[in-house]
Amino acid sequence: MGFLLNFAADTDALVALLSATATTLAVLVVAWPLIGRSDNLKARMKLVGQERESIRIRERAKLSELKVSLTLAEPTKLYKTIVDRLNLTVHAEDGKTVQALRSAGYRGRSPIFKFLAAQVIVCALAMLSSVFYATLLLELPLAGDLAIGLCAGLIGYRLPSVLLKNQAQKRQTSIKRAWPEALDLMLICVESGMSLEAAFRKVSEEIGRQSVELSEELNLTTAELSYLPDRRKALSNLAQRTNLESVRAVVTALSQAEKYGTPVGKALRVLAQESRDMRMAEAEKKAAALPPKLTVPMIVFFLPVLFAVIITPVLIRVFSL
């Protein structure tokens, strides 16, 4: 009997000891994240700050190496003299002219002076050549020569703007075609844990094979993200330079994520799908417009040949009788 009582007492003590140990361990497991959170959070935030600073240093070093594409050259003395003599500096500060040049891929003060001087030079050359041609060959009165000269001068003045607009449209087309693939690459980079600067840098390196223009814009945006204190300003500059709705939608999503801390991956996935759908819809629209465009060439070039092939044997038989 005494043995049984001692065994029962030892069993109760063992159960109590195990229960106390299990309770203590459970409390430690639950409370351990709360105990070590502050130090762990500080260490992680310190590592994030160090990584961000290293990214900024690396991007600044890469920016210093891109002297050819990102260096803002001074305008040529001839162009600057023409602009200053004709008092065209007001147009050099015009936001529309600067925006048009940026959309075409020209940045800095030198392209502005070149564009304004080209308008004057082409206008003068067109006017003088047309007046000289009309005077020597057409033998028109003085009023007719002046009218031809004015028309030619107006066409010459507008010619650089037309060429600049065509260059901007070609650049936008190249960016628009490669933008869905760039969004897919950016989505992969963001979901893998990369920062925004690293994602833009990686995408700019990979997308250069498909679109040099888009690679240049993303590279410039990466540099602005490293330099500018307001990151949303760098993103808005990207939208202004490209002047595309698809790019502006992505910039808006990234700006909201930067401001409110919302997840970027889902928004990028939806925007990438929309960009691909828009590209497919544009291709289908061009394909649907092809038959009406082919009507006039078929009437002008195919039908006369077809009639000649059909009627020529008949005419040969008729005249041979």
UniProtKB/TrEMBL annotation:
<keyword id="KW-1003">Cell membrane</keyword>
<dbReference type="Pfam" id="PF00482">
    <property type="entry name" value="T2SSF"/>
</dbReference>
<dbReference type="InterPro" id="IPR018076">
    <property type="entry name" value="T2SS_GspF_dom"/>
</dbReference>
<feature type="transmembrane region" description="Helical">
    <location>
        <begin position="146"/>
        <end position="164"/>
    </location>
</feature>
<feature type="transmembrane region" description="Helical">
    <location>
        <begin position="13"/>
        <end position="35"/>
    </location>
</feature>
<keyword id="KW-0472">Membrane</keyword>
<feature type="transmembrane region" description="Helical">
    <location>
        <begin position="294"/>
        <end position="316"/>
    </location>
</feature>
<feature type="transmembrane region" description="Helical">
    <location>
        <begin position="112"/>
        <end position="134"/>
    </location>
</feature>
<keyword id="KW-0812">Transmembrane</keyword>
<feature type="domain" description="Type II secretion system protein GspF">
    <location>
        <begin position="183"/>
        <end position="311"/>
    </location>
</feature>
<protein>
    <submittedName>
        <fullName>Type II secretion system F family protein</fullName>
    </submittedName>
</protein>
<keyword id="KW-1133">Transmembrane helix</keyword>
